[in-house]
Automatic annotation (TrEMBL):
Signal sequence, renumbered to the chain: none
SUPFAM superfamilies registered for this protein in UniProt: Family A G protein-coupled receptor-like
Membrane-spanning residues: 26-48, 60-78, 98-120, 132-158, 197-221, 242-260, 272-292
Keyword Membrane: yes
Residues covered by the G-protein coupled receptors family 1 profile domain: 41-290
Entry coiled-coil feature ranges: none
Protein name: Olfactory receptor
Naturally occurring in which organism (per UniProt): Felis catus
């Protein structure tokens, strides 16, 4: 089918692995299961953090926002992806593609900055424990989260129109599962050096700067932890900070590889699998990491479950 066919004019065609239908069927099952588990895991984190008074702290306030971001991020693209994988219709409207790209870039940018905010929270908790609640007051927490959302949305407002307005010379076939920036840039029939340069500069501000801040924060944290005499105290700090570092590694590893080289320099198939990992696996693993490595969350879950059981017995 020609990319300029009247029936698909104005619509993008998401090719994905359409030349390998068996792989698409396998991916449909795997992605559906992963998506349902992601919804369940992140919703659980949000509910537990809101319902248990012991978790009404800055750390869990930020974790709630991270889980909400993961829910929004996956829901902005996975339903459309499942629809395309499950049938012969691979199209997405221009408006749908624009919305998907805007949310993908915006929510991804917010998450980069939110992880930096969470690193600052851990830095204050470990290095300035006596002043923690004074420094990390509700106004500052809300301000930091608002700043993260504002910068992420601003980044998307710049990059989304620039990417969508690139001339495609009537070509509407996207060699990807999603309307994702590197794939859309590759479709352009003009030199994309300028937009790739802008994307790189914005990525330095949205991706690399928060990462540098996180690494510096953890440098101070490690130094403070090594001065703690109690082994149980060190273990508790490493458990809490280890969860955050694991999430940072999963998230930033993919982001840096994909968006610091947005054009033709990366392998197409490699980019597809990295996007799937970034879009599905990371949001799926985040609640597991914070639950399995965190005694406070496990304790809150236990209290909620036992509380519900005792309530049912009374009824």
């Amino acid at each position: 089918m020609d990319g300029t066919n009247d029936s698909t004019q104005g619509n993008f065609i998401l090719l994905g692995f359409s030349d390998r239908p068996h792989l698409e069927r396998i991916l449909f099952v795997v992605i559906l299961i992963a998506y349902l588990l992601t919804l369940m895991g992140n919703t659980t984190i949000i509910l537990v953090s809101r319902l248990d008074p012991h978790l009404h702290t800055p750390m869990y306030f930020f974790l709630t926002h991270l889980s909400f971001l993961d829910l929004s991020f996956t829901t902005s693209s996975i339903p459309q992806l499942l629809y395309n994988l499950n049938g012969h219709d691979k199209t997405i409207s221009y408006t749908g593609c624009a919305i998907q790209l805007f949310l993908f870039l915006g929510l991804g940018g917010v998450e980069c900055l939110l992880l930096a905010v969470m690193a600052y929270d851990r830095f204050v908790a470990v290095c300035k424990p006596l002043h923690y609640l004074v420094i990390m007051n509700p106004h500052l927490c809300m301000g930091l989260v608002s700043l993260a959302w504002g910068c992420g949305v601003a980044n998307s407002l710049i990059m989304s129109p620039m990417t969508l307005w690139l001339p495609r010379c009537g070509y509407w076939k996207v060699d990807h599962f999603l309307c994702e920036m590197p794939a859309l840039i590759r479709m352009a029939c003009v030199n994309t050096a300028a937009i790739e340069g802008i994307a790189f500069i914005l990525a330095v501000g949205i991706v690399l700067s928060p990462l540098v801040f996180i690494l510096i924060s953890y440098g101070y944290i490690v130094r403070a932890v090594l001065s703690i005499q109690s082994s149980s105290g060190r273990h508790k700090v490493f458990n809490t900070c280890g969860s955050h570092l694991t999430v940072v590694s999963l998230f930033y590893g993919n982001i840096i590889y994909m968006y610091m080289q947005p054009g033709t320099s990366s392998s197409k198939d490699q980019g597809k699998f990295l996007t799937l990992f970034y879009n599905i696996v990371t949001p799926l693993l985040n609640p597991m990491i914070y639950t399995f490595r965190n005694k406070e969350v496990k304790g809150a879950l236990r209290r909620l479950v036992l509380g519900n059981l005792s309530l049912r017995k009374r009824l």
